[in-house]
Amino acid sequence: MTTGAEPDRTGQGQGGDTALSGDVAFRLLVDAVVDYAIFLLSPDGTVLTWNLGAQRIKGYEADEIVGRHFSQFYTPEDREAGRPQKVLELATSSGRYEDEGWRMRKDGSRFWADVVITALQEAPGAPPHAFVKITRDLTERRAAEDQRRRLEAEQRARAAAEGALAVRDRFLSVASHELKTPVASLQISTEALLRAREHDDLDDARLERGLRRIATASERLGELVSELLDVSRLSAEPREPRRQPTDIAGLVRDVAARFEEMGNVKRIRISAPGSVPIEVDGSRLEQVISNLLDNALKYSEPDAPVEVELADSEDRVVINVSDRGIGVDEETPERLFEAFGRGSNAEHLQGIGLGLYISRQIVQRHGGQIEASRRRDGPGSTFTVTLPRVEGGP
User: Fold this and answer.
1) No. of H helices and E strands in the chain?
2) 36-45, 236-245, 314-323 — which is least confidently predicted?
3) Which of 290, 291, 350, 368 is the most exposed place for a label (fewest CB within 10 A)?
């Protein structure tokens, strides 16, 4: 290795050729390597030798750096943290140390280096006679990898943007279609009542029929707007739900009672313990149960029962809502939980396709999962909600 003096050449070979001793040949070989910085350090970190690769990578001539401490190659922040001494200690304890990081050139510029330090010692852990330090400049490779990561990030961002545009277009299509029906009903009913009044043909019976149609359309319109707003509210809420002690069994019975008051008398059958306490966001879980019951009643055959079963264990609560309707179609049930997602066998039914999407968002925020499957005992579907218990719960 270059130390400022020409290496010794000894011996004469046949034909007058100069023969080199093994150590001199090795030093010449190391000195000729230009892609790697290869040099020796004393036990305290002083630079003992210097090759052409070290000169090319780090910018120092041999007489400028031999005899100086190798900490000069480290960044100011690494020197302040005592990193040079630490890496020598690690190389001593394990015999070898390797890492990648920023290093300094003579001109003050930084380069990304792959560094290997090997302790020359008689036994592992013994005091080293010296260290061999090999450094490779990986700045160009790192720049290429950074560029690749940037391109991949841009591609992901572009795909996400395209996906968002697709969801937006789907939203506009579905929302406009669903909102058009109640709005048209409101307009028709209102215009019919106005014409009847103009022709003095508005008796009490006709007025009541018109007002009922207006009330029904208004209710439907309110439900659609509420679902759309709820998606926005969910996006703005913290990911961690506001947990409080809640009796899931009582919650199911309360929601079922409200549905039965609206005309679904005796259609909902509940199988549950007297009480199923758990820590959840009660208002949000009430929304999940309401969405599942509404979905089951909507897609069931007329007067067919809807069954709700609660299973309680030490680590989880499971809620099954089963109907005897058209069932989950052959396409993956995952589509049902996407925004505006609906089964292909349910396109003729009313719905904007947000209820199950909202339900999954709520359940997942509680650390649970929701799944859809076909009933095994006949036609119909089963929606299963699994909620993990929380430490410190009731």
Assistant:
1) 10, 11
2) 236-245
3) 350
Cβ partners under 8 Å of residue 342, min gap 6: 335, 336, 351, 353
Instruction: Tell me what the mean pLDDT of segment 212-221 comes to.
Output: 84
Q: How far apart are CA 389 and CA 394, in angstroms?
A: 10
Residue 249 has a pLDDT of: 93
C-alpha to C-alpha distance for 318 and 251, rounded to whole angstroms: 14
Residue 39's nearest CA partner among 130, 122, 138, 139 is: 130
Enumerate residues 6+ apart whose C-beta is below 8 A from 117: 41, 87, 88, 91, 96, 97, 98, 131, 132, 133, 134
- What digits encode the pLDDT tens for the residues 37-55? 999 999 999 999 999 999 9
**Phi and psi dihedrals of 291, rounded to 5?**
-65, -40
Strand order in the sheet with 130-137: 37-41, 130-137, 110-120, 96-104
pLDDT at 15 > cutoff 90 = no
Structure tokens at 228: 């759309």
Q: Tell me the pLDDT of the chain averaged across its residues.
A: 82
Kindly list the structural domains of the chain, giving each domain's residue range(s) and its CATH number in brackets, ordered by start: 14-137 (3.30.450.20), 144-236 (1.10.287.130), 244-388 (3.30.565.10)
Return the beta strands (E) in 328-380 as ranges.
369-374
**Least confident among 100-104, 167-171, 207-211:** 167-171
pTM check: above 0.85 = no
Q: Which residue has the tokens 């349910």?
A: 346
Residue of 255, 308, 288 lying closest to 356 (CA atoms): 288
Is pLDDT of 8 > 60? no
Query: Coil, strand or helix: which one is 48?
Result: coil
Query: Is 255 within 8 Å of 262 (Cβ atoms)?
Result: no
Tokens 């000195």 correspond to 31
Query: How much is the average pLDDT of 61-78?
Result: 95
Q: Give residue 276's identity as a one-letter amino acid code.
A: V
